[in-house]
Write a structure and sequence with these properties.
Layout lengths: L2 E5 L6 H10 L3 E5 L2 H6 L2 E4 L5 H10 L3 H5 L5 E4 L1 H4 L2 E4 L4 E2 L4 E7 L10 E6 L1 E2 L14 E6 L1 E2 L6 E7 L1 E9 L2 E4 L7 H13 L1
Parallel strand pairs: 1-2, 1-3, 3-4, 4-14, 5-7
Antiparallel strand pairs: 5-6, 7-11, 8-10, 9-12, 12-13, 13-14
C-alpha cells in the first residue's frame, strides 16, 4: 500500500491513529517534514484540544503553506477537520481556509451535555467513494465541543440536538469530525476508503 503521512500536530490521538492504520495494512509515517508531506500519497491531519493551539503548533512547525498547497488526498480528523475551515469560534482563530465556513460551538438541545462525547449515528447527505461500505445509521465515536455546519461539502451529518457535519469533502480535502481510530469497523472502513482514493 502507498505511504500515508500523519502530520505530527502534537495530538494525543496520534499513536492510536497510527495503530489503526497499521491494522489495515497502511504504511504510515508521523512527520513535520514538509518534503515528506508533499511526496506522500495521502496525508492525514489529526487534532485534539483547542483549535488555536493546534494552529499555533502547525505555524511553529512551518507547515501552514505546505498543508494549503497539498494536492493529494488530505483527511482532517476531529479538530484536524475543523482546522480545514476558514475560521473557528474556538479562540476566534483563522484556520487553513481549505473549506468555506466557520466552525461553531455545538448547540444541543437543553439537557444534552457539552462536549458531545460517545457514539452517534451517521445520516447521509450524498454518496462518495469515502463512504463505500459505510451505511446511514452506522455508529461512530465523537468527542468534541465545536463543529462545522452542514453545507455543500457535507457527505454525512450527525444530529446532537442540532445537525452538524460529520464527514465532509471538497476536491482533495476530506474531513471526519468523529475519531475513526475509536469507531471500530466503521472507522476502519473509512480509513481503508481514504487510502483507496
Amino acid at each position: 500500500m502507498t505511504q500515508l503521512a500523519i502530520i505530527d500536530s502534537g495530538g494525543a490521538n496520534i499513536a492510536s491513529l497510527r495503530f489503526a492504520l497499521e491494522r489495515i495494512g497502511a504504511d504510515c509515517v508521523v512527520t513535520k517534514d514538509s518534503k515528506v508531506l508533499r511526496e506522500s500519497s495521502h496525508v492525514l491531519l489529526p487534532g485534539v484540544g483547542a483549535a488555536a493551539d493546534c494552529m499555533a503548533r502547525l505555524r511553529d512547525a512551518g507547515l501552514i503553506d505546505t498543508i494549503r498547497g497539498l494536492r493529494q488526498p488530505l483527511l482532517g480528523i476531529c479538530v484536524g477537520m475543523q482546522l480545514l475551515y476558514e475560521s473557528s469560534e474556538e479562540g476566534d482563530v483563522v484556520c487553513l481556509g481549505l473549506l468555506p465556513g466557520r466552525v461553531q460551538r455545538v448547540q444541543p438541545d437543553a439537557g444534552l451535555p457539552i462536549p458531545h462525547m460517545g457514539w452517534n449515528q451517521l445520516e447521509f447527505e450524498q454518496s462518495a467513494p469515502l463512504l463505500h461500505d459505510i451505511h446511514p445509521g452506522d455508529y461512530v465515536y465523537f468527542v468534541h465541543s465545536y463543529c462545522a455546519p452542514v453545507s455543500e461539502a457535507t457527505l454525512a451529518r450527525c444530529t446532537y440536538g442540532s445537525s452538524f457535519s460529520a464527514i465532509v469533502q471538497r476536491g482533495n480535502v476530506y474531513g471526519a469530525q468523529f475519531h475513526p481510530e475509536r469507531s471500530a469497523s466503521v472507522g476502519s472502513q473509512l480509513l481503508r476508503n481514504f487510502m483507496r482514493i
